[in-house]
């Protein structure tokens, strides 16, 4: 995570992006900004439109509608000089090859005007010991590191990574995060997709959550752009149904609840929603709480009125 310069023109500016595949609206009106030196993570379930968005921004896929500016150019018409300023790590791993790791990286370096030295790249991605290994002999995680090596060999100003750490062991993942932090500290703008919330939290300055091709949250990773409700959820069972109350004064609410329920309160629980629960609710994999509290006039043990700021889900 880095300090980025808010005054510089954004690295990426997307407005009203649409893309359909037949009846499927893969991207359905997405707005997206990436500042220079910023690390932005695109989150979302399978089929949310992350890869399609990334591919359009990187100039590998056409769009139906909307404007896209990347490093000051429209990727639809930008040329080779523009492409040399961008690094890309796609989901698919590098092809089988009889060449060695060093040979492949050196070959790719030849495409760029000012590449990083090959040995520096291999060290950065932790493949220095595999420099003479043939690509086809690499493990899955090592191939992914080679993908990353090919993405950064050209010293990109802007780096796109589509699920870069899939197949990494925890040690490799942490080493990779460190690498991205170094790149971001050097003012590389980074846009990555991931399925790992903790990866977004560990790496990104900002997250954008997509669901069904739309942005459902945009902001800081720790709260998913302010979507995480820090209030406590008190749940219990009464009057023949589940009861649930959200409150920022749980102690006061519990006192009232205990006063009105002299015995053991069935299924009493007190918790705060986690980032993951909020995420699942946002992307529609988890239903939002729907239980209504009791406390109507006929209730034998009326539910206390929630303290100020409490919200009752119905
Ligand atoms: N080439 C294509 N032809 C037809 N439909 C496509 C094509 N590419 C993507 N789609 C559809 O568009 C939607 C968005 O797909 P996309 O790959 O962008 O999602 P994603 O968020 O990257 O998913 P994942 O996390 O699984 O990689 C999906 O419904 C997918 O089936």
What do these coordinates show?
This protein is an alpha/beta fold and 314 residues long. The chain has 2 domains: 12-223, Rossmann fold; 232-312, no CATH class. The protein has helices at residues 50-57, 80-83, 101-109, 118-124, 140-152, 170-185, 197-203, 250-260, 275-282, and strands spanning 12-21, 24-34, 39-43, 65-70, 86-89, 158-162, 189-194, 206-211, 214-219, 232-238, 241-247, 269-271, 311-312. The strands form 3 sheets. A 6-stranded mixed beta sheet has the order 5-6-7-3-8-9, sandwiched between helices. Helix 3 (101-109) packs across helix 4 (118-124). The chain is elongated, with a radius of gyration of 25 Å. The two termini are 39 Å apart. The structure holds adenosine-5'-triphosphate (ATP). Adenosine-5'-triphosphate binds at residues 21, 24, 26, 44, 46-52.
Please specify the SSE layout and strand pairing.
Elements: E1 12-21, E2 24-34, E3 39-43, H1 50-57, E4 65-70, H2 80-83, E5 86-89, H3 101-109, H4 118-124, H5 140-152, E6 158-162, H6 170-185, E7 189-194, H7 197-203, E8 206-211, E9 214-219, E10 232-238, E11 241-247, H8 250-260, E12 269-271, H9 275-282, E13 311-312
Parallel strand pairs: 3-7, 3-8, 5-6, 6-7
Antiparallel strand pairs: 1-2, 1-4, 8-9, 10-11, 10-12, 11-13
Helix pairs in contact: 3-4
The structure holds adenosine-5'-triphosphate.
Which descriptors would you attach to this protein?
6-stranded mixed beta sheet, 4-stranded antiparallel beta sheet, Rossmann fold, alpha/beta, 9 helices, about 325 residues, 2 domains, binds adenosine-5'-triphosphate
């Amino acid at each position: 995570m880095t300090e980025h310069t808010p005054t510089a023109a954004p690295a990426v500016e997307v407005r009203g992006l649409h893309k359909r595949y037949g009846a499927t609206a893969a991207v359905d009106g997405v707005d997206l900004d990436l500042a220079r030196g910023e690390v932005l993570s695109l989150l979302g379930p399978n089929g949310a439109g992350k890869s399609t968005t990334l591919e359009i921004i990187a100039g590998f896929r056409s769009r139906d509608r909307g404007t896209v500016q990347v490093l000051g150019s429209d990727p639809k018409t930008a040329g080779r000089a523009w492409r040399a300023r961008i690094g890309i790590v796609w989901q698919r791993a590098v092809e089988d090859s009889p060449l060695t790791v060093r040979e492949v990286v050196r070959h790719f370096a030849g495409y760029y005007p000012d590449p990083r030295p090959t040995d520096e790249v291999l060290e950065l991605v932790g493949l220095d010991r595999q420099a003479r290994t043939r690509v086809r002999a690499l493990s899955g995680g090592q191939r992914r590191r080679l993908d990353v090596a090919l993405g950064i060999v050209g010293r990109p100003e802007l780096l796109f990574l589509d699920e870069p750490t899939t197949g990494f062991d925890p040690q490799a993942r942490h080493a990779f995060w460190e690498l991205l932090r170094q790149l971001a500290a050097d003012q590389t703008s980074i846009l990555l997709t991931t399925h790992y919330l903790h990866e977004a939290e560990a790496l990104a300055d900002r997250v954008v959550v997509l669901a069904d091709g739309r942005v459902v949250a945009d902001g800081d990773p720790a709260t998913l752009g302010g979507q995480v409700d820090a209030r406590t959820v008190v749940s219990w069972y009464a009057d023949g149904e589940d009861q649930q109350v959200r409150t920022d004064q749980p102690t006061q609410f519990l006192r009232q609840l205990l006063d009105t329920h002299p015995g053991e309160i069935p299924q009493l629980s007190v918790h705060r929603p986690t980032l993951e629960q909020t995420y699942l609710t946002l992307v529609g994999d988890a239903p939002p709480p729907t239980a209504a509290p009791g406390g109507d006039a006929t209730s034998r043990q009326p539910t206390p009125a929630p303290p100020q700021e409490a919200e009752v889900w119905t």
